[in-house]
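Fill in residues.
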């Protein structure tokens, strides 16, 4: 059996236009969290548009504001996921001369609840996903990256819980990504398996197509994560092979609440792009 998860889902491919878009906009954000080998993704022929923030007013000749040495303003707020709203919030910080060293600069936690109503994702102590990527500076792209991470974590959480009814699974995954993820998790449940160790996700690239569609590609390294039998507790410690490295292509759509939900995902195990 594969180290982490056999590729149960049919692999889809991005169109040439989408693939070109992603290859032109790489990024690498650092965060810690949780993830996995999931499913099938996405064929669209639409060309990417400019960033949703591209049409915001350009800051020109704004006066600098200085405060006395004994006066400090500090603003703490969570990004909303809406590019226009987040730009206004950032702009307010700049105009006030504020100390913005709080929540706005912190990398998103893979288990964050984020906006009100977002389900919290929890992992057992013997399993961990590590995500390596850098913020792009574009609010929409960064929100898509953060929710892509949470999509990955939501599938693993369902495996750990031994249930496809977890709140996060259907919150961060919809359409074929959700149905494929349910099939994938059910495979673990039927075999009475879970996994332990650490899976690393890296080499993230993100691109936008309009205001509500994003494409994310990334790699995983499963060489330090292993299948565990729930009943016996035995861990299947397999050796590292080319199949320990997986390339993912994911398509996401931004819903009315501002959540970037994964709609399709494809995987290519043993990809040359991800092997060291």
């Amino acid at each position: 059996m594969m180290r982490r998860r056999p590729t149960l889902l049919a692999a889809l491919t991005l169109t040439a236009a989408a693939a070109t878009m992603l290859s032109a906009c790489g990024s690498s954000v650092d965060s810690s969290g949780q993830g996995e080998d999931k499913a099938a993704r996405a064929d669209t022929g639409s060309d990417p548009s400019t960033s949703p923030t591209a049409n915001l007013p350009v800051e020109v000749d704004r006066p600098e504001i200085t405060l006395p040495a004994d006066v400090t303003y500090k603003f703490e707020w969570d990004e909303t996921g809406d590019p226009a709203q987040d730009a206004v919030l950032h702009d307010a910080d700049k105009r006030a001369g504020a100390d913005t060293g709080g929540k706005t600069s912190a990398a998103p936690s893979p288990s964050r609840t984020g906006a009100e109503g977002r389900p919290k994702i929890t992992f057992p102590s013997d399993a961990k996903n590590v995500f390596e990527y850098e913020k792009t500076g574009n609010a929409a792209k960064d929100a898509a990256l953060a929710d892509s991470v949470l999509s990955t974590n939501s599938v693993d959480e369902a495996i750990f819980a031994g249930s496809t009814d977890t709140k996060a699974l259907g919150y961060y995954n919809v359409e074929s990504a959700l149905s494929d993820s349910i099939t994938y998790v059910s495979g673990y449940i039927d075999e009475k398996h879970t996994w332990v160790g650490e899976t690393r996700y890296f080499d993230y690239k993100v691109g936008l197509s309009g205001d509500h569609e994003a494409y994310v590609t990334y790699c995983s390294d499963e060489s330090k994560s292993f299948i565990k039998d729930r009943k016996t507790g035995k861990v299947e410690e397999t050796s590292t092979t080319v199949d320990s490295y997986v390339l993912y292509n994911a398509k996401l759509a931004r819903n009315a609440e501002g959540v970037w939900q994964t709609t399709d995902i494809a995987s290519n195990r043993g990809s040359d792009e991800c092997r060291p």
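The longest helix spans residues 139-161.
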